[in-house]
């Protein structure tokens, strides 16, 4: 059993509990709350909050209740994006994880609104994270505000949403595309931006010791370099993850309609590209270990090992 | 010319400028930025940010650059809600203010994504409001975090979104509804919640003098009572505004499909109901003037006077 598998068996139920609790208060209308919960509590792997918590742990820091709550916000964003992606005007998917998608079950208008409420709710989760704090577990308002800002960037018009815009163009307009465009303009914002947020949020949450009071410029620069390294780690991991997803789906794709990296450059070259991003991500962990005495890379190596041909 | 008309002629261009500037940075993709800007820069009255700024001014406080920026966030939320409401699965409107709606012009998928990006962007506007601060104009992180939280509540699954859910049910399911349900379950969340946010945000922004450091319980209770009074004022104004909108639209409605308050209880009774909310709102201003030496009610009275039979 990998260290990550042990970690997941401990934290997956706690993430699920946090999501369930917050979703129970997500709407004043219980029928609508149920729709929102259906969209989120669907057996997802919780990769994004898990990555945040793994980064916190990698730096030897404790996962407090308010850190757990912040970590789950990105899952609301991920869930809303799936609900909207499944809509008839987008990918028109009737199934999600073998069950009816939200619009298939509840109707199209309801699915649009469920997505809207989940996205709005994500920002409530971050901004109210201290509501479940205990003792000295409060996260500073400065930090939560910065995390709010980062989430809005990685999820919005320069992040996840624009990745979906490009992906739709890719599907519908039969653009003449190349691999570089697909990696930089689709995969990076659509899939990797949120994972980048998850990782760098973990780095920030692992360094809550009055960061805003640090007067030593050198320490401060080191901190920022660490946060940036984790952002890049999350993005590299995210792109490799997306390429793997494409490789897994390759045989099911309708070649007429979908242009993914393996379709563009072939399976072997796509695998090589994926391994390039994994190598970059591993290099980041090596650098982090060299500069941070408290950093244990095992969990994050296990994340990278989730991706590959043998799985 | 009313005091509000003078105020609007000064601040409408500044609101427009702030929106234009932030929308210019709303996406890394310029074509998508343009779609987002099209959805917002459409000649709207900017009632919601104007209300926030009017409240700040009513308390004798200066409107600083960062206060202006915070005030405009709600307009992003309002604009996204119109884009999504116009979608084929919702109200299926091809026109908005006499021009093609976003989905009519750019396509349905794009309209969903424009709305998503505007909603996400609203939280970026609030959380980055200090980016345009000058000198001592910074708003505390505590305050901005609280405003983020309030916006997510009034816009989300217990606010605006659930109002739209109920309104869709009202349209499609031909429920047996009564006036109380319509006022409380549709008008209040769908229209009044955001206006409630605008007004109470103005109250908070008018009292930025280290509120979080106030140790005097009595002053603190007075502050909270003031913020709550403005929330109620905004909600009363919003409901009256929605009833007026229904009265104005009464003759254009297809009685088969739409059930609005005048359809339910008749024009005279709807006018009486509207005036009830206006009277309540005026009472709040009377109370505020009695308890706050610096409070000048003229601008907010002008807001209430926008609504009525003579206009």
From TrEMBL, chains A, B:
It holds the Pfam family polyprenyl_synt. Keywords: Isoprene biosynthesis, Magnesium, Metal-binding, Transferase. InterPro entries: Isoprenoid_synthase_dom_sf, Polyprenyl_synt, Polyprenyl_synt_CS. The keyword Transferase applies. The keyword Transferase applies. It is an enzyme of class 2 (transferase). Its cofactor is Mg(2+). GO terms for molecular function: transferase activity. Its EC number is 2.5.1.-. PANTHER family: FARNESYL DIPHOSPHATE SYNTHASE (PTHR43281). Belongs to the FPP/GGPP synthase family. This is Polyprenyl synthetase family protein. The lineage of its organism: Bacteria, Bacillati, Bacillota, Bacilli, Lactobacillales.
């Amino acid at each position: 059993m990998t260290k990550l598998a042990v970690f997941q068996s401990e934290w997956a139920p706690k993430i699920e509990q946090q999501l369930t609790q917050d979703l129970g208060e997500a709407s004043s209308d219980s029928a609508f709350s149920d729709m929102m919960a259906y969209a989120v509590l669907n057996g997802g792997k919780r990769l994004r909050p898990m990555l945040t918590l793994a980064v916190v742990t990698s730096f030897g820091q404790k996962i407090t209740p308010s850190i757990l709550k912040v970590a789950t916000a990105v899952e609301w964003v991920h869930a809303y994006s799936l609900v909207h992606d499944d809509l008839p005007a987008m990918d028109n998917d009737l199934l999600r994880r073998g069950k009816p998608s939200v619009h298939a079950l509840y109707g199209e208008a309801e699915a649009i609104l469920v997505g809207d409420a989940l996205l709005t709710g994500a920002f409530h989760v971050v901004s109210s994270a201290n509501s479940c704090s205990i003792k000295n577990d409060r996260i500073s308002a400065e930090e939560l505000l910065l995390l709010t800002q980062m989430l809005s960037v990685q999820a919005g018009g320069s992040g996840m949403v624009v990745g979906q815009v490009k992906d739709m163009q890719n599907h519908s307009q039969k653009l003449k595309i190349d691999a570089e465009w697909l990696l930089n303009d689709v995969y990076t914002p659509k899939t990797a931006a949120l994972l980048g947020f998850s990782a760098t949020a973990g780095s920030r949450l692992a360094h809550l010791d009055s960061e805003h009071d640090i007067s030593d410029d050198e320490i401060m620069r080191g901190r920022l370099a660490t946060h940036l390294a984790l952002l890049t780690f999350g993005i590299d991991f995210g792109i490799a993850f997306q390429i793997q997803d494409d490789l897994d789906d390759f045989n099911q794709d309708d070649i007429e309609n979908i242009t993914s990296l393996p379709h563009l450059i072939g399976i072997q070259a796509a695998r090589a590209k994926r391994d390039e991003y994994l190598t970059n991500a591993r290099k980041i962990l090596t650098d982090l270990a060299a500069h941070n005495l408290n950093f244990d890379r095992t969990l994050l190596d296990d994340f990278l090992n989730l991706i590959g041909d043998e799985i």
